Amino acid sequence: MNKLKIDFEKVDGLVPAVIQDADSNVVLMLGYMNQEALDITLDTKKVTFFSRTKNRLWTKGETSGNFLNVVSLTVDCDNDTVLVKARPVGPVCHTGDDTCFSEENRSKTFFIDELRAIIKDRKNNPTDKSYTTSLFAKGINKVAQKVGEEAVEIVIEAKDDNKELFMGEAADLLYHYLVLLEAKGYELDEVMDVLIDRHQKK
């Protein structure tokens, strides 16, 4: 990140900085940076702008605590715009919205975490009306068997062109896989650690 070549003189000392969520890819906000703001951003790993209205530097979150933790910075092809990928701590907009464009910063894959929490709750607080609870009650062998059955069914549907049926089986497999992880007492994050470690070794 320290090798960024930005033409500040081309744009009167200020360049627009587009802030994008590093995980969801949602655009969070737009600010402006001068050389000093860029240097502070690089040094602290917290997004810092130059305020055109207040005529001073300001670090996003300096009063609210909702910092933007930098993951990466890149420059566009004309060397006069910065793309900052960051992980926000709390809402980005002063209005309390996720973004300054009134968009929800939420990838649908984040629902997996909600689903995991529900599955964990069904295990720890069983209820007779819950299918998930009934799986846990039948034991690890039954849960593992269900994963196997769903895996076979998705393979069968993969050979055809019925998207609705395939997606249904894909959802069933993912759900039962998450139940199996919970039944074993393992976290999905641990699986992610294995994948990340494999990727880093390539």
Automatic annotation (TrEMBL):
Spell out the residue ranges making up region: Phosphoribosyl-AMP cyclohydrolase: 1-111
Q: In which pathway does it act?
A: Amino-acid biosynthesis; L-histidine biosynthesis; L-histidine from 5-phospho-alpha-D-ribose 1-diphosphate: step 2/9; Amino-acid biosynthesis; L-histidine biosynthesis; L-histidine from 5-phospho-alpha-D-ribose 1-diphosphate: step 3/9
- Which class of enzymes does this protein belong to? hydrolase
InterPro entries in the record: His_synth_HisIE (IPR023019), HisE (IPR008179), PRib-ATP_PPHydrolase-like (IPR021130), PRib_AMP_CycHydrolase_dom (IPR002496), PRib_AMP_CycHydrolase_sf (IPR038019)
Extract the GO molecular function terms from the UniProt entry: phosphoribosyl-AMP cyclohydrolase activity; phosphoribosyl-ATP diphosphatase activity
Q: Could you tell me which residues belong to the region Phosphoribosyl-ATP pyrophosphohydrolase?
A: 112-202
List each copy of the Phosphoribosyl-AMP cyclohydrolase domain by range: 29-101
Query: What family is this?
Result: In the C-terminal section; belongs to the PRA-PH family.
The name this protein carries in UniProt is Histidine biosynthesis bifunctional protein HisIE
Q: Which gene encodes it?
A: hisIE
